[in-house]
Amino acid sequence: MTAVVQAEGLTKYYGSRRGLADLTMEIQPGEVFGYLGPNGAGKTTTIRLLLDVIRPTSGLVRVLGGSPREPAVRARIGYLPGDLVLESRDRALDYLRFLGRVRGGVPSSRIESLADRFDADLSVPMRKLSKGNRQKIGLIQAFMHEPEFVILDEPTMGLDPLVQHEFLALVREVRASGRTVLMSSHVLAEVESVSDRVGIVRGGRLVAVENVAALREKAVRRVELHFAAPVPRADFEGLPGVRDLRVEGAALACTIDGRPDALIKAAARHTVVHLVSAEPDLEEIFLTYYSDEEPPR
Amino acid sequence: MNGPLISKSLRDHRGVTFWWTVGISAFMALYLAVYGSIKESPEVYGPAMIAKFPGPLRDLMGGLADMTSGAGYLQTAVYQLFVPMLFIACATLLANRSLAGPEENGTLELVLTLPVDRRRLVLARLAALALGLLAVAAVTLLVAWGMSVVVDNGVAFGHILAGHLGVLLLGLFHGTVALAVGAATGRRLVASAVVGVWVVAGYMVVTVGRSWDAISWLKWVSPFHYYAEGRPLYEGVPVGDYLVLAGATVVLALTAVLAFDRRDVGV
Hints:
Chain A: It is a peripheral membrane protein. Chain A: InterPro entries: AAA+_ATPase (IPR003593), ABC_transporter-like_ATP-bd (IPR003439), ABC_transporter-like_CS (IPR017871), ABC_transporter_ATP-binding (IPR050763), P-loop_NTPase (IPR027417). The complex is a heterodimer of chains A (about 300) and B (about 270). Chain A has a six-stranded mixed sheet with strand order 5-6-7-3-8-9, sandwiched between helices. Chain A contains ten helices and 13 strands. Chain A has helices at about 45-50, 70-75, 90-100, 110-120, 130-145, 160-175, 190, 210-215, 260-265, 280-290, and strands spanning about 5-15, 15-25, 30-35, 60-65, 75-80, 150-155, 180-185, 195-200, 205-210, 220-225, 240-250, 250-255, 270-275. With about 300 residues, chain A is α/β, with parallel strands linked by helices. Chain B is mainly α and about 270 residues long. The mean pLDDT of chain B is about 90. The interface between A and B is medium-sized, with 28 and 24 residues.
């Protein structure tokens, strides 16, 4: 199967400033790839290289099996720019129709149904749109021609939670139909629920590509247990994965690396009245890739 | 695929083309209306009065040899300096709104990711620029001709057409300069500056500089030489000169296409 994105040693310098260094990665058909990094890390540079807006200094990039310089390749991509500018006095609907015509025709029914989903008003002149409403227009145009590959640069910026929810549902539908999505973000929480894999870019370098499920396994979880009667600390000491153990009377608190299995089995020998387990904080793991230090414990 | 691109650009240009058409038409109508009174009293505007102008100023206005004849007045007041400059300004504005402006404000990025070859995109924007300018020229030609009939300046329609065609070619040439520089640099300011310098230098060379041997040879690179030297209002279309202007425009257009095709956009 041909990779949707195939980058080898992809490098981009802006004069002497490094935009992206030696990026090698593949994105496979049907996956949702989260591309994470702080502002200025090289996310947008990568995306612009994938779309031939800018040209690599060195290295190779292939998208959907071809060069992004070929219009036929770009015809199969949908794109939401990170900083979408819509300036015209034209109504949003006219602009979407124009984009549809250049793309060889998009049925109006599809534009309308997407507008309904996102609750977007297409009759407003574009320059009067708020940030959030502009973003909705951007999402509609990225999805409206049902592209095989959707590239979204910071798609959730400015969206209210309801629309964000609808957007994530749409991404899942795209994946379910076997199509591919690349979405960038500087906040992991925004992409973790839909991404299969995440790539982490920092200072122009891809520092890690992780399976989201694997990342969750690595996650540190804070767990609290309350028992019917005070429990001996000795029962819980030295369990695999358990750290920062604190036992005070009938209450126990600790953090867990990876699986909670051993703790649960130890706790099962007592009467548990209450259990609290916080969602794994992927953000924290994510941050460990940014700071070259150990994650805070 | 070029159809939607051209019609979109024309839509985007409609405000500029409309108001510049109104402005240039008003300018022409006003100046031509004055001709009536000049024709009535040629002694006031005759050689005696012209002689009071300082020499360089006379040169700057194309010699002012003949203010009282219909063609002479039309040439001096309309086709010598002001209307060509207005056309050039309009063309530069349209050119800057075609590539460099959208690149600077960020709207070009999405367009570039559409399934359109970059070379075709430049050609489509150039076509829209040419069509917009043609619309301005067509309406203002009718105004120039209509007012000429009203004030009865005796200039044949064919000669007005010849002069107007020259203005259109001048505008198109400079618009393409702006487009090419904008395509190569992505900066409106640079594009405008190049046009500005070329226009001022080119115009000076063929007017005040023409009797100055050290620079008079520069007329060969002045677009105004190919516009005015053939005296279109008197002699009709100077075919060779206009072909030079048109040919140079084509070369610039190809330069714009090649420059834009090999560049990072928006960085």
